[in-house]
């Protein structure tokens, strides 16, 4: 297998159908190993967008958390979550709870927030019996493959995320905002360019407009960076979508995405986005103890359906405020 010249001694394997894979001999102290190789590992992530490190034997939360700390320092607390996660410490979470038989399609973590994580860290404490791969796709390649007219519209208008918080589906107000105090939630929304409306039943509806194409803060390259497809109604299982529309109505779905001008995104557009992601997907099945580092701006990731127990630890780090992910100039408060 060809190896990158930056870390040839580390045996980085490159294949077009999977992320870069680095094989290491099990170190006695993986945290010390991670600290010693931090710069080389980060260089590989910058070069390839994602790096799977195999051999660290990260099967315990404390062991994986120590490696995350040495590689990334302070982890980001999650805000604006769309589903609750189990927390294992400051910034240390379990993967998003999502039905095991349903895929989580390609997305960039928290791409709808004003402050986004530049680096994602995953540790596989328990590998699933089958499936469950965290696959990746290069956002530069995806952008180049999409129709120019589609990209031009999203780049001009941005995209709109709508959310309706309720007590039945998705994260609660406390889980998403860290508080259930209305005044605090309103302050957060105003500070983060989120339009909000309190409904008669006490639930909260929000809208936030974000850029769909951004320039990478290190490379300056344009990336397709958003969650337009993942959080759209047409990505849902058809039966789930029909149920949610029946219960909440078209305008009351827990989450949905629209064009930046507020008009609906057609099913054919969402299908094209997901098909394009699939054409550029790279995957490598998890093995217990694996570490995966992902450049969250350069690289989208997904979670495939699985069987058996699956325990993945997640950390987010290196926050960025991307100038071109901010609301469009014509956006106004509603």
Your description of this structure?
There is one protein chain. This protein is of the alpha+beta class. It has 2 domains: 5-98 and 115-138 and 284-320, Double-stranded beta-helix; 141-275, Clavaminate synthase-like (Double-stranded beta-helix). Helix content is 26%, strand content 31%. Strands 1-2-3-17-7-20-5-4 form an 8-stranded mixed β-sheet, covered by helices on one side. β4 and β5 form a beta hairpin. The N and C termini lie far apart (55 Å). Mean pLDDT is 92; it is low at 1-8 and 329-334. It comes from Streptomyces bungoensis.
Which SSEs are present, and which pair or pack?
Elements: E1 12-15, E2 18-23, H1 30-36, H2 38-48, E3 50-58, H3 61-72, E4 87-89, E5 92-94, E6 104-107, E7 115-126, E8 130-131, E9 136-138, H4 139-145, H5 148-157, E10 159-165, H6 173-177, H7 182-191, E11 195-198, E12 204-210, E13 213-215, E14 222-224, H8 238-248, E15 255-259, H9 267-279, E16 281-282, E17 289-295, E18 299-303, E19 306-307, E20 311-321
Parallel strand pairs: 2-3
Antiparallel strand pairs: 1-2, 3-17, 4-5, 5-20, 6-18, 7-17, 7-20, 8-19, 9-16, 9-18, 10-12, 10-15, 11-12, 13-14
């Amino acid at each position: 297998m060809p190896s990158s010249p930056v870390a040839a001694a580390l045996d980085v394997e490159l294949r077009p159908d999977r992320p870069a894979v680095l094989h290491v001999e099990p170190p006695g102290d993986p945290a010390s190993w991670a600290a010693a190789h931090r710069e080389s590992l980060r260089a590989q992530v910058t070069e390839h967008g994602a790096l799977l490190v195999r051999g660290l034997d990260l099967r315990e939360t404390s062991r994986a958390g120590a490696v995350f700390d040495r590689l990334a320092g302070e982890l980001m607390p999650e805000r604006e979550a769309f589903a609750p996660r189990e927390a294992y410490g400051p910034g240390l979470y379990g993967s998003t709870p999502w039905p095991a038989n349903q895929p989580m399609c390609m997305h960039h973590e928290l791409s709808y927030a004003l402050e986004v994580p530049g680096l994602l860290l995953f540790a596989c404490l328990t590998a699933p019996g089958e499936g469950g791969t965290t696959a990746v796709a290069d956002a530069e390649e995806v952008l180049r493959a999409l129709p120019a007219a589609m990209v031009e519209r999203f780049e001009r208008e941005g995209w709109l995320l709508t959310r309706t918080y309720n007590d039945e589906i998705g994260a609660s107000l406390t889980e998403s905002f860290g508080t259930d105090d209305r005044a605090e939630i309103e302050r957060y929304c105003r500070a983060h360019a989120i339009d909000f409306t309190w409904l008669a039943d006490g639930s909260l509806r929000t809208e936030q407009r974000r850029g769909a194409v951004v320039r990478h803060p290190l490379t300056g390259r344009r990336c397709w960076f958003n969650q337009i497809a993942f959080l759209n109604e047409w990505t849902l299982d058809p039966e789930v979508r029909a149920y949610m529309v029946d219960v909440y109505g078209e305008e009351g779905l827990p989450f949905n995405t629209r064009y930046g001008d507020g008009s609906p995104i057609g099913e054919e557009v969402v299908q094209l986005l997901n098909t394009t992601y699939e054409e550029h997907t790279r995957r490598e099945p998890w093995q217990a103890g694996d570490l995966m580092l992902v450049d969250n701006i350069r690289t989208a990731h997904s979670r495939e359906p699985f069987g058996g127990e699956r325990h993945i630890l997640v950390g987010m780090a290196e926050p960025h405020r991307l100038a071109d992910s901010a609301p469009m100039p014509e956006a106004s408060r509603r």
